[in-house]
């Protein structure tokens, strides 16, 4: 039995780096395609292409955001600080304080968050990159697991809705022969009354011709309101939904298409409705299908 993933998920890990504690945050929401964004200090920007590759190997669809937040270590050596950038920032701070004496001064943590202040030592870059990517992999694993958990919950909800559609079809099906018989009898009565009136006004039309016309109209009407094909197609589409969910993988687009097919059959059933029972079943089917469609929007 395959697994399905939700497009919404979350993962978080904290790792220690030579720059301090790095909080790695990965989250996603629904999207028709894979939409990746990376929010970080410029010191981490060079890692973006490899992080993008890791995300693409984990996720097929969804708007995915990877966010890095650094809590700088008090033990950072001077070799990690760009003195020129720091001097420029402090000079700007003095200008602000001259114009606004009551303004708060920047904290050490705030200063280190500014672009260009921290530099990674050349000799440590390879080791630094590997520690960052290892942290991203760990975070993506937690992120993937959260998507799978939610996907499993959504799968169970969809299977419950499949059972509701089967129940609605099973409830209506035994009533259809009686509904069709009743509607045909009413049609025969109306046609017989109308055509008998025509016979009385036009002696050239025989009673046998009138009866033949009634039989033709009743047959055509029976074909028009027969919903056996729609009922069978509803069952077929529900079986396919179950098969797709059981197979697993990236099922969202396929299930969305099946919802369109189910909705088409429910609409056709409503347009052919020859009784209150058929109309109500059509309405209830569309409500269930719409609920399924809303849940499917969350599936990868």
Kindly list the characteristics that best describe this protein.
300 residues; alpha+beta; 2 domains; four-stranded mixed beta sheet; 12% strand
Strand content: 5-15%
Poorly predicted runs:
none
* SSE run: EEEHEHHHHHHHH
User: What global shape is seen?
Assistant: elongated
Q: Work out the helix count.
A: 9
Which strand order spans the largest sheet, edge to edge or round the barrel? Answer: 1-2-4-3
Give the proportion of residues in helices.
55-70%
Tell me, rounded to a whole number, the average pLDDT: 85
Number of domains: 2
Compute the number of strand runs. 4
Radius of gyration: 34 Å
Biggest sheet architecture: 4 strands, mixed
Structural class: alpha+beta
Distance between the termini: 17 Å
Describe the protein's architecture and organization.
The chain has 300 residues and is α+β, with helices and mostly antiparallel strands. It folds into 2 domains: 139 residues, no CATH class; 146 residues. 63% of the residues lie in helices and 12% in strands. The chain is built from 9 helices and 4 strands. It has a 4-stranded mixed beta sheet. Helix 1 runs parallel beside helix 4 and helix 7 packs antiparallel against helix 8.
